[in-house]
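User: Predict the structure for this protein chain, please.
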Amino acid sequence: MPDSAMVDEQETLILQTLEQFLERDVRPHVMELEHNDIWPEEIVHKMAELGLFGAIIDEEYGGLGLPCSTYAKICEKVAHTWMSLAGIFNSHLIMSAAVQRFGTDAQKKKWLPKFATGELRGGIALTEPNCGTDLQAIRTRAAKDGDDFIINGTKTWISNGIHAHVMAILAKTDWEVEPRHRGISLFLVEKGEGFRASRKLEKLGYKGIDSAELMLEDCRVPADQLIGEEPGNGFKQIMGGLELGRINVAARGCGVASASLDEAVKYSQQRETFGQPIANHQAIQLKLADMVTKVEAARLLTYRAAEAYDRGERCDMEAGMAKLFATEAAIDNSMDAMRVHGGYGYSKEFPVERFYRDAPLLTIGEGTNELQRIIIAKQLIQRNPI
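Assistant: Here is the predicted structure, written as structure tokens:
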């Protein structure tokens, strides 16, 4: 059997298993968990059993070793059912990817097997109260102290911040060097003395997954938990991981956009006005046509970015385009689904109000869509010099 056929067969089996899990163990509980903002402990354990926390971690470290193209389809399916779940393992896998791509052999052997099984779950802690998109402006400081670093600072809007065991923390190790990014390093920091979640942050949507403010107060971290063990490389390491994160967010956008479409298509055939289903009305047909076109275009952009990532190519432009278009499609489709539903779209008895609340986050997280446009334009000029 050709290798491509084997890959396709594996992907089909994984996606079928995932679909069964979502239908059996997730969909019946989404409304209650989401509306009450409950962290889905049992579902998280089952996701670990499925191997989702090791989805892209190499098989030699106990992961599934999946290509990003398959991972993107997993994220879309999960987000179609409940977007919050995709965030729980996405942030974890960005941290894992940083270790896998830039860590020492000893770091990979120590951390990746535990990340792959979900024994240790985590995420990335980049954003600070006075620093969002401009990561070079972070104020968290890591000072060398013998064989350790002492880290002080505050991180905010950190996914998995409360229930995580370990975080990849971005911190300044050199305040004098120029350009500024050369003074930034990335550390693996376990929860414990000097490192805690100070509060849970309340959100409009994206319920169930915890978003928190983290405090690091004289937190002592062994030097061998500096990823790569050479300071000054953290900005490059985390930006590489954000390509994966943006593909994940694009896939989530596809999931929310397609879920909005599915609900609109279904409701438009059930709801009748003037003696016929509203699906027969041209005004509704125009909305449905735009919605399905956006879903298909978003998928193509997302898959193209994932395939570039799998080839090892620089893909910040491709990931940026996918993230930009797919997340805007999620915004548009969630609004159109609500309009198709009319008054029922505003009711918590239907899922479209959740899509409407979840979608805006996608245009902000992993770099705002305004930033994506700047990245796309700069790469366009660089790739097309005159």
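The longest strand covers residues 148-159.
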